[in-house]
Amino acid sequence: MEKQWQMLHPDEKTVRLLEREAGCPPLMARLLAIRGIRTRRQARRFLNPLLRDLTSPLEMTGMPAAVDRIRRALTAREKILVFGDYDADGVTATAVLVSFLRQCGAQVVYHIPYRMAEGYGLGTDFIRGRARSIGADLIVTADCGSSSHEAVHLASELGIDTIVTDHHPVDRAPESAVAVVNPSSPEGQTDLAHLAGVGVAFYLVVALRAHLREKGFWKTRPEPNLKQLCDLVALGTVADVSPLILDNRTLTATGLEQINAGLRPGIRALMRTSGAPQASADAETIAFKLAPRINAAGRVAHARIACELLLTDDHRRANRLAAALGRLNGRRQAMESDVLQSILSRFDRRPELLDRPALVVHGNGWHEGVLGIVASRLARQFHRPSIVLATGNGTAKGSARSVEGIDISVALNRCEDLLDRFGGHPLAAGLSLGTDRLADFAACLETAVEALAARREATPTLSIDARLPLDDVTPELMDGLARLGPFGQGNPHPLFVDTGIRVKDCRIVGDNHRKMVLESGSSGNGARPAIQFNVPGDLPVADRFEKIAYRPQWNHWNGKKHLQIVIEDVVR
């Protein structure tokens, strides 16, 4: 889809101030100003993210009650049950809580539901069955529980206390919970609403360690180093596509340091089996190499496999589990491809479907575990909200994914009378409904999306940070740009523009990726290898571009790294 290019223009006074007071080169000062940095102090904290600058976890409502209840459980040797979600965020949040509680000497077990049989969230059947059978005294949820009103109430009636740790927005939290720690709940701390579920779990651990220190708990046992848990926080935060801003950025930067140190056997094995560059992982490594394998367990088998990988200290077991996740990821990719091709073939037969403001597709027998990924690919390819549903036994269940500017949770809320269940974020949600309501739901959703889309730009915008000739992309520049990372949602890679580009070599590789060698029109002092992903197969090869929008990156291969230009868009 054609994109509208927009050159960003930061306040020039702020740029000059950062140059003068923070000692930033002109380009770095410009990039910082674009990212909202206004003062020397803000520049220092942004360029040097440190754990000591994190927001106090006690600012989250419910935190004092939560840590006090867990301390009492530890002291009384009560059985603690950690109940997590089956995606990467939930798995890592579970691993954070279980790891820390084990270091406390707690009687702790964990449970992650099987997607296909148990579905999402804490339910009453689990409370009546598993929770009672193991004699749980306290349940601590991880990345779920904010909408589990009936289950939390039943647990309370049965004498089981519940602490909810979550980050999903809800209208009201479970009243029967001992504590609800959710920065996105109405009673929560909105300054931390950007945290992923694993971030909330980590903050509970931070507050609990400090609380236990006050009570003299660590006099008889070693106090855990919480920095060692940040690898899990980084993994879950990036996997959940949480914005890499503020505390998330600090936690992810610290976590990447831990990942690259190779200290956790499970992540080390996952790095090796996924082909990730050793000791040089970044947020993209998590997003494209590690997270898909963690998620594959919950999508096509059981998420416990992934959680055990993250918890084990046994290198041999870690290697076996990482290899198993690799095989599951291969199965996931095959299932995803089958569903996607089925949908694209349907669009070929009925192109009028692509004229609608939202895509609602369903099929009998589609595997529920891959529907979210397929919906994401459709949303990106066709730049509109996409809902993919699996049908069977009179029910349609699946996932919704949206695009910037259209809050899919708001759209679904306007169709709530047609839905049995739904919930999620502005860009992603899950839902279920009766198949007899599918046509009415599609019509309702299209109306809702049309109303929301009326307030956004129809053409996607490409925001350009600065003009930068290809010749100026050097290893020294890359070192400076790296200090702006980790890059991801909410903190994108700096995007540059250059003009009069000569194409010295061009060939198609992989699935319609265009590999090129480019020369800048500004001087022609040296060529730069470049790649443009997902180019239409019928796009003719050019020998010159009027201008390119690009981001530079290191390409890691066979233990070496080379500068590479990633093309985001071109004008011929």
Describe this structure in words.
About 40% of the residues lie in helices and about 20% in strands. It has about 575 residues and is α/β, with parallel strands linked by helices. The chain folds into three domains: about 55-325, inorganic pyrophosphatase (n-terminal core) (Alpha-Beta Complex); about 350-455, Roll (Diaminopimelate Epimerase, Chain A, domain 1); about 460-570, OB fold (Dihydrolipoamide Acetyltransferase, E2P) (Beta Barrel). A five-stranded parallel β-sheet has the order 3-2-4-5-6, sandwiched between helices. A five-stranded mixed β-sheet has the order 7-8-9-11-10. A five-stranded mixed barrel has the order 14-15-16-18-17. It is globular. It starts with a strand and ends with a strand. The model has no long low-confidence stretch (mean pLDDT about 95). InterPro entries: DDH_dom, DHH_sf, DHHA1_dom, RecJ, RecJ_OB, SSDNA_exonuclease_RecJ. GO terms for molecular function: 5'-3' exonuclease activity; nucleic acid binding. Belongs to the RecJ family.
